[in-house]
Amino acid sequence: MKKLAILATGVLALSLASAQTVIKIASVSPLSGPQSVLGESIKLGAQLAIEEAQPRFKAMGFDLQFAPQDDQATPDVGVAVARRIVNDPDLLGVVGHLNSGVAIPASEVYKDTNLVMVSPANTNPRITDRGYLNVNRVCGRDDVQGPVGAEYAVKTLKKTRLFVIHDKTAYGQGLAEAFANRAKELGATVVSFVGTEEASNFQPLILQMRAQKPDLVYYGGIYDKGGVLIKQMRERGLAMPVMGGDGLDSSELVKIAGKAVIGTLYTTTSGPIDTLPKAAAFAKNYKAKFGKDSEAYGAYAYDATNVILAGLEAAIKANGGKKPTREEVAKAVRQVKLDGITGRIEFDDKGDRKLSDYYVIYMKTDSYPGVVQKIIQFAPPKKG
Amino acid sequence: MSIAELLSILPQTLLEGLLLGFVYAMVALGYTMVYGVLGLINFAHSEIFMIGAVTGIEVFRYLGNGGNPYLILLLAFIVAAAVSGTVAVLVERLAYRPLRRRGSKNVLVPLITAIGVSFLLQDLVRAIEALWHNEFNLQYPSYDTFNYDVLSKLGSPLGLTLAVKGLIVILVSILMLAGLNYLVNRTKLGKAIRAVAQDMSTAGLMGINPDVIISRTFLIGGSLAGVAGVLFGLVYTNVTPYSGFQPGIKAFTAAVLGGIGNIPGAVAGGLVLGELETLGGTYLGFLTGGNFGSEYAQVLAFLILILILLFRPQGLFGQNVSEKV
């Protein structure tokens, strides 16, 4: 009898669940491999937002589900995941990706069905410059981030001889060029502008620094190589500060460079959690639920998800309480106005935030994250 | 940049090139010895080198807190040599020997196997490190003792600086190379290796077991690569499971440059390549007015290499086939 009762409740629950229309939101970020620390924080930030919204959607008659995906920080895996996602008719929104190099090709796939994507982390200008209806981001842009670094280096730190290095990727080179151009406009000398794919032996660059005696070294690239460069410079007795972009913004930088990281500066578009307005509750819930602190992009993923959910709700209302199409959701998301935990979110017609925050961060000790030196709000550049 | 400024860093550049060259040389020996006895390009050798570097890190991880850094380093050399040597022997035993037994005359089959083994070892190490420590970028500790500039006491002649660890690279390399030279030319094992290299079946008729000798050759080459891995990690500090590939390709090139199968040639090739790369990386940008920066150092190094091989296809030291190993 008892078994039958359980079975009956099971059937009842099942039929209740199926009575509600399913809507799925996906997060796509690297969940395996060397960048999984950042990728996981995106997934968990999104998960938190969705779990908070589930009761709201239930009241409207929808079963809101979360579908986390792994893009392995690799473009072809990202595209394969994107293809799988667009084939699921219940899926109405994507939070992701971590890497611009993955997001650009993957969003071409989303675009075909106007599946809305809100990125918490992609800073490459091309993400939104293509002008797609469905592509938005809640973080800043490299062509603002580089100049912000240049202004700080030249105006605040009074550096005049700059040695600029990049890692020959779309991200690194673009950032380094934006930095170097602005620095030149401000009257500083770029003594050298070099690209290198080297991952372990930075001695030739260090020798060049010895000859040219720059007073600041800028590195456009990711922490895995940047950290090694900083460590080798310090071991060889070069003391000038190193500056970089949000590619250096990871606890791994500190792990790699160790004590040598002290004195390093970086610009980033995602501020440390304790500097964000209204993020305290998020940080507490995140820690309580997942047992660890939110890394760089967690709060941005949370906001990105809430933007999608707000757009979704608006689209459902406009559709008379029925499930909207992907295009309707994409249009509604572009119109969302929201006070998120990372500040006011409003999109311009390209999908950039009307105002984004840019942070200059200084590594005062060998613990992550560093100390915020400056927070600047910028609009995306007009042209482009 | 004035010429005086350019010249001021030349001695240091040559010294850095020397350090890099010694590391290449020690890895190149493994390629050249295996080629000498088997006629096989063992592409998995770059992974044996990486395993040495990773093993060294594990030694430092468990003993690095306190204790004499020199003693720990010595232990790291020994353990890395043992682990790398063992893995090299296992690879030969499990992958190459069965192929040899089949009597395949196709040289491409072992070559492709070697490439496969290389991928296998990379991802095996990645999996082990991920499960064991959940780490990808592995770090050698930065001891002040090892970073101390030994030339500062001598008043830094020519503006040179040489950290203790640089000195360790030079001394250990010379010691290992001298030891190998003695082993190959003065001992019974060395004689047997040379015999197998010259003619495996005839050596077999003279009472030498070629399988044992081949196994020993892998052991020696692998141990050298293991020590080289620790030296590499010590100087360049960061090691990942994929760190072996680049230096491995360079070392292979060095072996070809010196004349593959020839031991002094591998050393000379390593040193030449190390210098070319460092000089190119440092000066290319200055000499071309910034049009071609450090990123073209490899291009330059390999261009010069092609030129050398055009005029000496047998390599710098290679003479004829019967002189190998």
Key features of this structure:
heterodimer; A: 384 residues; alpha/beta; Rossmann fold; seven-stranded mixed β-sheet; five-stranded parallel β-sheet; 20% strand; elongated; B: 325 residues; mainly alpha; ABC transporter involved in vitamin B12 uptake, BtuC; two-stranded antiparallel ribbon; 2 strands; 73% helix; globular; Peripla_BP_I (chain A); Leucine-, isoleucine-, valine-, threonine-, and alanine-binding protein (chain A)
How would you characterize the overall build of this protein?
The complex is a heterodimer of chains A (384) and B (325). With 384 residues, chain A is of the alpha/beta class. In chain A, 45% of the residues lie in helices and 20% in strands. Chain A has a 7-stranded mixed sheet, with helices on one face. In chain A, strands 2-1-3-4-5 form a 5-stranded parallel sheet. A two-stranded antiparallel ribbon of chain A has the order 11-12. In chain A, α9 (223-235) links the parallel β8 and β9 (242-244). In chain A, α3 (75-86) runs parallel beside α4. The longest helix of chain A is centred in the N-terminal third of the chain and has 24 residues, at 36-59. Chain A is elongated. Chain B is mainly α. Chain B has one domain (3-323): ABC transporter involved in vitamin B12 uptake, BtuC (Orthogonal Bundle), CATH 1.10.3470. In chain B, 73% of the residues lie in helices and 1% in strands. Chain B has 13 helices and 2 strands. A two-stranded antiparallel ribbon of chain B has the order 1-2. In chain B, α4 runs antiparallel to α5 and α4 (69-101) runs antiparallel to α10. The longest helix of chain B is centred in the N-terminal third of the chain and has 33 residues, at 69-101. The A-B interface holds A 33-34, 168, 192-201, 203-205, 207-208, 210-212, 224, 227-228, 231-232, 235-237, 252, 255-256, 258-260 and B 1, 5-6, 8-9, 12-13, 16, 20, 136-137, 139, 141-142, 147, 149, 161, 163, 232, 236-240, 243, 246-247, 277-278, 280-282, 285-286, 290, 293-295, 297. Chain A: Residues 23-364 form the Leucine-binding protein domain. Chain A: Belongs to the leucine-binding protein family.
